[in-house]
Amino acid sequence: MSRKLTGHQPGAKLTPKTENADIPYSGQCWKDNRGNKVTVTGASIYRVKFIRDGYEFPCEMPTSRFLSDFTLTVGSHHEN
Hints:
Elements: E1 28-31, E2 37-43, E3 47-52, E4 59-62, H1 63-69, E5 71-77
Antiparallel strand pairs: 1-2, 1-5, 2-3, 3-4
């Protein structure tokens, strides 16, 4: 039987890296690197759910990736 080498110690807690920013919350507006707006519909330590402007289906990604790919807009609530 072979052992999997994951690089983690047995029993170690695995937590996402969210050091330099707070967790996004519902209603906040963010922009991607192209300047497209997204509105957060839900978030946790691990996942962020959001809707892109002009797109009817929700998207979801890990919080750490969301924080690295998106920037918070000045007006944090979505305005139509």
